């Protein structure tokens, strides 16, 4: 089975992980329109609350699982 997940915020990543958990043989591809992938949709709250030292640490360019 081939699956395309559009968007890599919480819902997209959760969907991809669930599909792989339930169908390990599935070929899952996650597509994101932005150049960086953020796993912290609450990033502003973390930044204001001084929980992160650098905004660069809230992003990654690689999504391999």
From TrEMBL:
EC number: 1.6.99.3
Gene3D superfamilies given in the database record: FAD/NAD(P)-binding domain
Origin superkingdom: Bacteria
Gene Ontology MF, one: oxidoreductase activity
Entry annotated with the keyword Oxidoreductase: yes
Alphabetical UniProt keywords: Oxidoreductase
Keyword set includes Oxidoreductase: yes
Alphabetized InterPro entries for the sequence: FAD/NAD-bd_sf
Protein name: NADH oxidase
Gene: nox_1
